[in-house]
Specification:
The protein is mainly α. The chain has five domains: 94 residues; 96 residues, no CATH class; 82 residues, Ribosomal Protein S8, Chain: A, domain 1 (2-Layer Sandwich); 115 residues, Orthogonal Bundle (Hypothetical protein af1432), CATH 1.10.3210.10; 74 residues, K homology (KH) domain (GMP Synthetase, Chain A, domain 3), CATH 3.30.300.20. The strands form three sheets. Strands 1-3-2 form a three-stranded antiparallel beta sheet. A three-stranded mixed beta sheet has the order 6-7-8, with helices on one face. A two-stranded antiparallel ribbon has the order 4-5. Helix 15 links the parallel strand 7 and strand 8.
Length: 520
């Protein structure tokens, strides 16, 4: 109720009370005057209290309405701010895409300008040649005019003959030049065609083994993954060692790395970050560490699944974990864990058919390539490492000997060893099982990381961009800024001396100083 209306009501009540008092005085007379006056005062007092009560209730009601309107205004303001922030993120993502397109257009403009300059230079060369020919014609005419006793017709005939001879010689030279250029262009075109054919035929294998796609709930999530000024995507690439490609693919990002464990780590981390919703560098590091622990558990489960599938008993837990790692290792493009299971089953079937020890053939077939799970970290061939691991974790002598002889490094100690070697050959030789070029490519990338990690003070090294870039993370306390520049130069020189590679390799040394303290 309006406070003005309330005051009016109170005044009316007071006036009514006064009128009642006057009436009572007139009717009651002098004897009842005091009594009537007391009643009037009581009525007046109740009216005043009622007016004050109505005034307080109206004021409270007005404050509650004001508070409700204020809350509604604040909620409306927050919603508008949220929409503004979302619009800013979309605009930032579009701005980055436009920047990349603008850079591409600039490169094309530079190429066009270079081609235009070359054409202009060729036009000038042609004009110079025409000037030389005109000068030669003028000299010939002057020489003919100087000769006496020759008619105009004879001079014309001689001039025409000379010009024809010169033109014929020039035409022959031009034909030879064109033929030579044609041969050179044909050879270059043939090389280009062959190269393109090789690249296209290899592309499917490379995509299968070096690229993963992570689906996103919406395209807006790409901007959050990139982060302001690219901080989030740089933190992800540094933590996982994977090249993250954000392009026009709708609701997806692409992960590129030759190491499938890193790709799986990056894929699971991004999925967890998207679900969590909190995407910033500190959270990224926490999530990557958490996913890394989960992935180790998954590797162990893969090894246990392989053992259960083949019904092999009493295998040491460490060997089971190493078997799980083989799921993320390839040999000439063939998955090593799948290969070992095939060898184990083939060897066991052949042993069963000829009445030999099936258990030895099965165990030796399953463990014959176990050394490949650690050959990246330890010196020695995978056969030697496999023999050491089998001995260390309590495998029988027959199994150890079969592992040692599966590449004929030693003479076959038993018929079971012969069966393991035969099963290994059968699994590798079946059509489509292996791709040697891909394995060579992966070995080159591993060698690239190994060279970078061989220098003192290097914490981590990641090969990116299909081997065209190596990023080296150094320990800030051991390597100064000046030494970081020298390390980049020395690494590039060592790569050039020890590694065969196409094109060029970019060496990037990252030195980061962090100060961490806890408030307790």
């Amino acid at each position: 109720m309006n406070p003005v209306n309330i005051a009016g009501v109170a005044v009316i009540v007071i006036l009514a009370a006064a009128v009642v008092v006057l009436l009572l005085k007139r009717q009651a007379g002098s004897r009842k005057a005091a009594e009537a006056e007391e009643q009037a005062r009581a009525i007046l007092e109740r009216a005043r209290e009622e007016g004050e009560k109505i005034t307080r209730e109206a004021a409270i009601e007005a404050r509650e309405k004001d508070l409700a309107r204020l809350n509604e205004f604040e909620a409306h303001t927050r919603e508008k701010q949220r929409k503004i922030n979302e619009t800013e993120r979309r605009l930032l993502s579009k701005e980055e895409n436009l920047e990349r397109r603008f850079q591409s257009i600039e490169r094309k403009e530079r190429d066009f300008s270079q081609k235009e300059r070359k054409l202009s230079q060729k036009e000038k060369d042609l004009e110079a040649e025409e000037a030389k020919i005109a000068e030669a014609v003028n000299k010939s005419l002057e020489e003919l005019e100087r000769i006496s006793g020759m008619t105009q017709e004879e001079a014309k005939a001689l001039l025409i003959k000379k010009i024809e001879d010169e033109a014929r010689l020039e035409a022959i030279a031009t034909v030879h030049r064109i033929e030579e250029e044609a041969r050179e262009k044909a050879a270059a075109s043939a090389r280009e065609i062959v190269t393109n054919a090789i690249q296209r035929s290899a592309a499917e294998h490379v995509v299968e083994t070096t690229v993963s796609v992570v689906d996103l709930p919406s395209d807006d999530m790409k901007g959050r993954i990139i982060g302001r000024e690219g901080r989030n995507i740089r933190a992800l690439e540094m933590a996982t060692g994977v090249d993250i490609i954000v392009d026009d693919t709708p609701e997806a990002v692409i992960l590129s790395s030759f190491d499938p464990i890193r790709r799986e780590l990056a894929r699971l981390s991004i999925q967890k970050l998207v679900t969590d919703g909190r995407i910033h560098p500190a959270r990224i590091e926490d999530i990557v560490e958490s996913v890394k622990a989960d992935l180790e558990q998954k590797i162990k489960q893969e090894g246990e699944s392989a053992v259960l599938e083949l019904k092999v008993r009493d295998i040491h837990p460490e060997l089971i974990k190493l078997l799980g790692k083989l799921k993320y290792r390839t040999s000439y493009g063939q998955n090593v864990l799948q290969h070992t299971k095939e060898v184990a089953m083939l060897a066991a079937m052949m042993a069963r058919e000829i009445g030999l020890d099936t258990n030895v053939a099965l165990r030796a077939g399953l463990l014959h390539d176990i050394g490949k799970a650690v050959d990246k970290d330890v010196e020695g061939t995978h056969t030697e490492l496999g023999v050491e691991l089998a001995k260390k974790y309590g495998e029988s002598e027959k199994v150890v000997q079969a592992i040692a002889s599966h590449h004929r490094d030693v003479d076959f100690p038993s018929i079971e060893a012969v069966l393991v070697q035969a099963a290994d050959t059968l699994s590798a030789a079946r059509p489509g099982a292996r791709r040697e070029l891909l394995e060579t490519y992966i070995q080159r990338l591993e060698k690239l990381e190994e060279i970078a990690a061989s220098f003192e003070g290097v914490s981590k090294a990641f090969a990116l961009q299909a081997g065209r870039e190596i990023r080296i993370i150094v320990e800030a306390l051991k390597v100064s800024d000046d030494k970081a520049a020298l390390l980049a130069k020395d690494t590039a020189a060592k790569i050039k001396a020890e590694l065969d590679y196409p094109g060029q390799i970019k060496v990037t040394v990252i030195r980061e100083m962090r100060a961490v303290e806890y408030a307790r």
